[in-house]
Amino acid sequence: MSITKKSILLIFLVLFIDQAAKIYVKLHFTIGDHVDIFSWFQIYFIENNGMAFGMEILSKLFLTLFRIVAVVLLAFYIRNLIRKNFKTGFILTVSLVLAGAAGNIIDCLFYGVLFSESSFASVASFLPDGGGYAPMFYGKVVDMLYFPLIRSAEGQTLFFSPIFNIADSAISVAVVVILLFYRKELNESLESKKDKNVEPIE
Q: Transmembrane segments in this chain: where (predicted)?
């Protein structure tokens, strides 16, 4: 299988898993509803307007447009990496970043149109009669992965408190892998190409 096909397959696999998890939680959980998987891991449904791990910077429309531009640039970047025969592992890791960014874009673009509002009292419905809870570009990102690894005697989470999703995980894991194993490739891919064949002017 060519590296192009591997990259596309990985992106679509991550998108499928991410969206399947989000849609299931959206249609079966109320806001704040949670299920204990282990003592240190819960499925805990929240939504956010911001970037990864619930951060909010600038306006919602700006964030959505920023994500779209980032995904387009990443797609061109990956195409360049493939053309220049960079390591397969590096290309697939960058593809993970693209998949994660695209996963959250889908929420922002379409969830407001496709679903009714989730609340603490009611579960959302798909394609509600009265229309969705927000216009296109203004959907909320669904988060559900919660790892309260260390808690106080009172049950308060001391570490790790962010609630995130599979798309966020793909981005975070990819960034860590790049920093640990592919810094050289990253630097090489970002360097400006120098024309070594230019004759000096006499």
A: 57-78, 90-114, 159-182
